[in-house]
């Protein structure tokens, strides 16, 4: 790195005195996936609202070279010699996503970048329903990879071949079949690599490996096997880390016994996706550094002699509870386990951490609340952070490029959000919708002559995932500042959160002072309500009396309770079921609705309930969606709770008539 770049890097890092990294040698090449998901403050909201984990670096900005230097230092001092960066890319346009800021602006501009290698892990996770890739799109991919990454001196190579990890090889099979192998030389030429160079493709796949080899892949691996489990361990949403260690070894044995492709052995220190998915999350309980070290020791038996590599998932996937980066809660435990397993004995450098002053140069000043964990309060006047546009934060383009702000004629303050012609921008923060409340979304907008702007809301389910639908909020073509306002009733049990988005057509448009607020409660027709202070309204599955403990319905492990009464059912009938639940550590509670005909005879079917499984160790209120399809034969339904893997408790059950928010 030249002197100017080093000086700029040090200036960005606040002139810190970080001790120079001291790489520790290994006899096995150790890599680590890297999740570049912290490119704005809202991305830390789930961790902040959940309460942990909190990185030792604080809630940092992806793209800060100082962050990358500490990551490099910690990695190489614990035997990790390369990062495989999760890489997000629009294959239609060739645009590289904002997700990649950590690589492009952080790692590749870090002072100590040359101490580590890196590779691209292409997250081509569009889904099989998307149109197949075309030859032209693959050549564009090669061009982008060649220009941006393969040309870097520290790009990971095996036998001189640039390594490319592919998340979904099946998408390539869907598009080209075995003919993908014939396309590889063209991709190499598009990448500008020397004639005769071959790519070293690594597929994230653990079965059907003969097909992978026929496509031209050189090796296989996995991101994780967190969901694989033995049948007798835990419950649907809970399983032990001890079981995870056993299952990982089963998978390593399965892949290595197949002998179809060289294998990069995957490792994982744990799994806890509650920050992302709340009570519906799957968790591996009781992970420890000692148990992770045991997994690492076992992995040595399966290391492929041709590659001599393992890869850990993940450096920093805090929302999934699978990380080796040091945190305030777990310190350096996972990194030390890697070092103690794979590094040669010697004078290992002591673990160090940045000062509070240094951390302040790259941490966010404010982290918004997360709608999955903190229900919106009627006392909060504005639930949408950064709507005043004064901080140049909180908004991104539909292409994930940073949003632009204008200082010309803002509605108030010093700037407004600028939306270029025929493009769109959206809020990075989501606002949670509590069932039974009404919300108002407002914004001030203005348009250039001949242009118009539309305000919409993307709709997210109660599990935080986008439903791939939108709700229209209003539009304007006024050249002066004009207020748009729309009400959103929180009566659709399938919708748990919204964002705010603007689309400009025919010219540039501007938005300012955007807000989302609670305006009041909505009348919600209740069809069933029970505090569960007594068990009078419930029976067990075998017809016996239900029991009460701790002022709630008590459901022993493997048992179920059901209502004595039934609910009206029929085509397109929708209900929201809310209940407070608590589980023991290994239990999962499932809510069910048995379907009956008009005479009360059970149809031996259950109505579909979205995200019907929950597990939480403190009392938490959860809303479920009960929606009968248009062709249902049911005319009545009951309500049931089942405890699996441990005991559960239920109280304050309420079923209300729901409604569907208009969508497009």
Describe this structure in words.
- There is one protein chain.
- With 664 residues, the chain is of the alpha+beta class.
- The protein has three domains: 28-345, TIM Barrel; 395-521, Jelly Rolls; 526-657, Jelly Rolls.
- 18% of the residues lie in helices and 31% in strands.
- The chain contains 13 helices and 43 strands.
- Strands 1, 2, 5, 6, 7, 8, 9, 11 and 13 form a nine-stranded mixed beta sheet that branches. Strands 16, 19, 20, 22, 23, 25 and 26 form a seven-stranded antiparallel beta sheet that branches. Strands 28, 30, 31, 34, 38, 40 and 43 form a seven-stranded antiparallel beta sheet that branches.
- A hairpin with a 5-residue loop joins strand 36 (594-596) and strand 37.
- It is globular, with a radius of gyration of 27 Å.
- The two termini are 51 Å apart.
Largest sheet: 9 strands, mixed
**Low-confidence stretches at least 5 residues in length (pLDDT < 50)?**
1-15, 374-379
Oligomer: single chain
Strand content: 25-35%
CATH superfamily of the largest domain: Glycosidases
What form results from the Cα inertia axes? Answer: globular
Instruction: Output the radius of gyration.
Output: 27 Å
Per CATH, the architecture of the largest domain is Alpha-Beta Barrel
Please identify the top-level CATH class of the largest domain. Answer: Alpha Beta
Within the CATH hierarchy, at the fold level, what is the topology of the largest domain?
Answer: TIM Barrel
Report the structural category. alpha+beta
How far apart are the first and last residues' alpha carbons, in Å?
51 Å
- What's the average pLDDT? 92
How helix-rich are the residues, as a percent range?
Answer: 10-25%
In DSSP terms (H or I, runs of 4 or more residues), the helix count works out at 13
């Amino acid at each position: 790195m030249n002197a100017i770049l080093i000086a700029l890097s040090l200036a960005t890092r606040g002139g810190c005195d970080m001790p120079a990294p001291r790489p520790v040698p290994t006899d096995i090449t150790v890599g680590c996936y890297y999740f570049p998901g912290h490119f704005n403050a809202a991305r830390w909201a789930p961790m902040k609202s959940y309460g942990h984990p909190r990185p030792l670096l604080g809630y940092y900005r992806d793209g800060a070279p100082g962050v990358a230097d500490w990551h490099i230092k910690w990695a190489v001092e614990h035997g990790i010699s390369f990062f495989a960066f999760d890489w997000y890319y629009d294959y239609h346009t060739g645009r590289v996503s904002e997700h990649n800021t950590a690589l492009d602006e952080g790692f590749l501009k870090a002072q100590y970048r040359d101490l580590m290698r890196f590779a691209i892990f292409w997250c081509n996770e569009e889904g099989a329903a998307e149109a197949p890739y075309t030859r032209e799109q693959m050549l564009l991919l090669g061009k982008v990879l060649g220009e941006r990454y393969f040309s870097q001196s520290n790009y990971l190579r095996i036998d001189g071949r640039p390594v490319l990890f592919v998340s979904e090889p099946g998408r390539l099979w869907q598009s080209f079949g075995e003919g993908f192998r014939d396309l590889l030389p063209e991709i190499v030429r598009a990448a500008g690599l020397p004639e005769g160079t071959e790519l070293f493709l690594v597929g994230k796949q653990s079965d059907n490996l003969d097909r992978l080899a026929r496509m031209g892949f050189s090796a296989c691996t996995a991101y994780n096997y967190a969901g694989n489990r033995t049948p007798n361990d835990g419950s649907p949403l809970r399983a032990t880390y001890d079981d995870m260690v056993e299952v990982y070894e089963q998978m390593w044995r399965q892949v290595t016994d197949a002998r179809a492709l060289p294998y990069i052995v995957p490792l994982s220190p744990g799994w806890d996706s509650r920050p992302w998915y709340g009570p519906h999350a799957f968790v591996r309980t009781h992970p420890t550094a000692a148990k992770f070290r045991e997994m690492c020791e076992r992995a040595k038996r399966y290391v492929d002699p041709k590659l001599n590599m393992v890869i850990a998932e993940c450096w920093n996937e805090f929302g999934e509870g699978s990380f080796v980066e040091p945190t305030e809660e777990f310190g350096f435990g996972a990194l030390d386990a890697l070092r103690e397993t794979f590094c040669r004995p010697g004078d290992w450098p002591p673990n160090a951490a940045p000062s509070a002053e240094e951390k302040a140069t790259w941490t966010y000043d404010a982290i918004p609340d997360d709608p999955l964990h903190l229900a919106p309060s009627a006392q909060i006047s504005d639930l949408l952070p950064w709507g005043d546009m004064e901080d140049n934060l909180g908004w991104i383009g539909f292409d994930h490029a940073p949003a632009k702000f204008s200082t010309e004629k803002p509605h108030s303050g010093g700037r407004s959000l600028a939306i270029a012609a025929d493009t769109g921008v959206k809020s990075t923060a989501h606002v949670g919708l509590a069932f039974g409340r009404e919300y108002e979304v407002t914004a001030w907008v203005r348009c250039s002559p001949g242009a118009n702007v539309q305000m919409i809301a993307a709709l997210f389910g109660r599990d935080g995932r986008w439903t791939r639908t939108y709700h229209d909020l209003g539009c304007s073509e006024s050249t002066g500042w004009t207020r748009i306002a729309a009400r959103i009733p929180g009566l659709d049990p399938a919708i748990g959160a919204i964002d705010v988005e603007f689309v400009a057509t025919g010219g540039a448009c501007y938005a300012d002072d955007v807000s989302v607020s609670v305006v009041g409660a909505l009348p919600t027709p209740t069809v069933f309500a029970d505090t569960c202070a007594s068990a009078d309204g419930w029976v067990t599955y075998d017809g016996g009396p239900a029991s009460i403990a701790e002022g709630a319905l008590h459901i022993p492990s493997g048992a179920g309770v059901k209502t004595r009464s039934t609910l009206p059912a029929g085509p397109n009938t929708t209900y929201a079921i809310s209940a407070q639940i608590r589980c023991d550590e290994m239990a999962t509670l499932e809510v069910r609705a048995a379907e009956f005909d008009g005479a009360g005879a059970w149809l031996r079917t259950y109505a579909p309930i979205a995200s019907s499984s929950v597990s939480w160790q403190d009392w938490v209120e959860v809303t479920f969606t009960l929606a009968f399809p248009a062709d249902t034969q049911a005319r009545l339904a009951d309500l049931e709770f089942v405890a699996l893997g441990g005991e559960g408790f239920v109280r304050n059950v309420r079923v209300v008539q729901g409604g569907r928010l208009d969508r497009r």
